[in-house]
Design brief:
Strand 2 and strand 3 form a beta hairpin. The model has no long low-confidence stretch (mean pLDDT about 80). The protein has no helices and 5 strands.
Length: about 55
């Protein structure tokens, strides 16, 4: 894993890329809409998420 990216904040403590309860160590971040129709919602989800074992 890479060093913490100080420009990206994450509150998902159950993610393997989460450091210090807020920093993200993923090499890249993939964020997508939660629905197929671009006009249906304004919510997003992190597709980079991997649960801690």
């Amino acid at each position: 894993m890479s060093d913490r990216n100080s420009n990206i904040r994450c509150n998902v403590e159950s993610c393997v890329y989460n450091r210090d309860s807020h920093g993200c160590t993923a090499d890249h971040i993939d964020v997508n809409r939660t629905c197929a129709d671009p006009d249906c919602c304004d919510e997003t989800e992190c597709k980079t998420f991997k649960p801690k074992e």
